[in-house]
């Protein structure tokens, strides 16, 4: 009996020792897992994968998914998705981009975005039509998922990426474009979109094969800027633009949350746009604690030399034809202000940039007269204001220092113009700069040139034309421009010798400059 008891006690001691050792092993294992959790990573659990989206869920995750006309509530349990139909209601606060419809489960906080055609993703943020990336691709939201090496990208929600800085658990994942998908993104401002891959037993990254969009070499806007797709993101006041996908803009008419976002170029960026056909590109900004907006500090593209097709008849007159200002929108009329406020026509000029007009030095006797000058753009009739006329003061006048008033050598002057509000010329159909020749450019003999202005009908006439005139002349060769053939006049190297031997048109008969 004692032997039996002694054996039982011995067995009990051994059992206790085994239990103690096992508990130490388990305790050690738990300590390792606990240490991993401290590093901000998830414990490895059984996974559920949705087909065909490729979305990954871990044990305990819940979500909604469409099932025909119904909506199902799903839970990941031991590697299996267990789903059943649930009633839904409209979300009180939309969570869907690009006009997606948000519905929420009646008895849980899970929601589902029903995307418009061409969009997908948990928030309808993925643009299935996007075929290239702009700039460095930080705003790319397309569905490319292969690297340059041809490998398929890993889902940003993969557990193997838990220790990576950029994964689906990032606090700004939605704004960065990363989530429960494997599409290429550029969350860290690299030179192009990239993704993670698994190679040789390691999780590494690689650039993606998504092509770059054709480069926009000039960041400027044309007309009103409704087609502007540049990267300007600062207003005229210097404020930084808000991102169009900012949650602050959910209730705004124009934002990345609206169904028209793609059409207007509104997305995961803060670049200036003009979705409402305003006068120029603009963006939303913060003004203290209020959301406001401002026009952007984006330059207008140069449209020099472009004019509207001639629609009105060009009646032939002696030594020239009548014309409309839209046929020569760079033509400027320069007036001098006399005592009593009356203005009289002084000379013609040419707009060469929004703030500068080139004219002739012989029109002005002294620089102090600049304060009395006014420049008119958009005027067809010499003394009648045009429908879209713009009027400017002359801020500064530069007369060529070597202008010769006897032979008119260096007969050129520059006028810097500004309006009463301090702005320069705004491009319209009736006001647009002419193109400047490049440095050292020469034209061959007999090149046809066009002239315009309010000149006299004939050389000896006492009256200027009441309407803008135009004419065409040809550049004469040097042997036809000698003093012997020009009644003693000298043509210097700083002049052009031109005329029309057929219709007898020239700058003296067509323009006043």
From TrEMBL:
Compartments where found: Secreted
Enzyme Commission number(s): 3.4.21.68
Domain EGF-like intervals: 87-125
Segment forming the signal sequence: 1-28
Superkingdom as given in the UniProt entry: Eukaryota
Family membership: Belongs to the peptidase S1 family.
Name of the protein this chain belongs to: Plasminogen activator
Organism, as annotated: Engystomops pustulosus
């Amino acid at each position: 009996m004692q032997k039996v008891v002694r054996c039982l006690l011995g067995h009990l001691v051994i059992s206790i020792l085994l239990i103690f050792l096992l508990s130490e092993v388990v305790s050690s294992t738990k300590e390792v897992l606990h240490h991993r959790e401290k590093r901000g990573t998830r414990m490895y659990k059984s996974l559920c994968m949705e087909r065909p989206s490729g979305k990954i869920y871990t044990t305990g995750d819940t979500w909604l998914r469409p099932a025909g006309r119904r909506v199902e509530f799903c839970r990941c349990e031991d590697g299996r998705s267990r789903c059943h139909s649930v009633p839904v209601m409209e979300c009180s606060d939309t969570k869907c981009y690009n006009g997606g419809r948000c519905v929420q489960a009646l008895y849980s906080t899970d929601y589902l975005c029903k995307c418009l055609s061409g969009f997908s993703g948990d928030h309808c943020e993925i643009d299935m039509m996007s075929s290239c990336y702009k700039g460095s691709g930080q705003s790319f939201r397309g569905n490319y998922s292969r690297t340059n090496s041809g490998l398929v990208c890993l889902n940003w929600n993969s557990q193997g990426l838990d220790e990576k800085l950029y994964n689906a658990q990032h606090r700004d994942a939605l704004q960065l474009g990363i989530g429960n998908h494997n599409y290429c993104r550029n969350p860290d401002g690299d030179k192009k979109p990239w993704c993670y891959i698994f190679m040789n037993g390691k999780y590494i990254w690689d650039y993606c094969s998504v092509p770059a969009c054709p480069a926009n070499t000039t960041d400027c806007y044309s007309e009103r800027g409704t087609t502007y797709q540049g990267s300007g993101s600062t207003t005229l006041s210097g404020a930084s633009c808000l991102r169009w996908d900012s949650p602050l803009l959910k209730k705004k008419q124009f934002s990345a949350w609206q169904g028209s976002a793609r059409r207007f170029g509104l997305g995961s960026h803060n670049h200036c746009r003009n979705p409402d056909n305003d006068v120029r590109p603009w963006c939303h900004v913060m003004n203290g604690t209020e959301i406001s907006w401002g026009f952007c500090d984006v330059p207008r593209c140069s449209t020099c030399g472009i004019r509207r097709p001639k629609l009105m008849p060009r009646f032939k007159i002696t030594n020239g034809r009548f014309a409309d200002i839209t046929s020569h929108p760079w033509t400027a009329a320069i007036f001098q202000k006399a005592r009593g406020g009356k203005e009289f026509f002084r000379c013609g000029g040419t707009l060469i940039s929004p703030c500068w007009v080139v004219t002739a030095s012989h029109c002005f006797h002294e620089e102090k007269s600049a304060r009395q000058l006014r420049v008119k753009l958009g005027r067809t009739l010499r003394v009648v204001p045009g429908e879209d006329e713009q009027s400017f003061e002359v801020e500064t006048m530069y007369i060529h220092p070597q202008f010769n008033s006897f032979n008119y050598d260096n007969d050129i002057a520059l006028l810097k113009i500004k309006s009463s509000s301090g702005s320069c010329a705004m491009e319209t159909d009736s006001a647009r700069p002419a193109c400047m020749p490049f440095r050292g450019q020469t034209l061959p003999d007999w090149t046809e040139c066009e002239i315009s202005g309010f000149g006299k009908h004939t050389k000896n006439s006492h009256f200027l034309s009441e309407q803008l005139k135009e004419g065409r002349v040809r550049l004469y060769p040097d042997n036809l421009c000698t003093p012997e053939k020009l009644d003693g006049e000298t043509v210097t190297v700083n002049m052009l010798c031109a005329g029309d031997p057929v219709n007898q048109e020239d700058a003296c008969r067509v323009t006043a400059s």
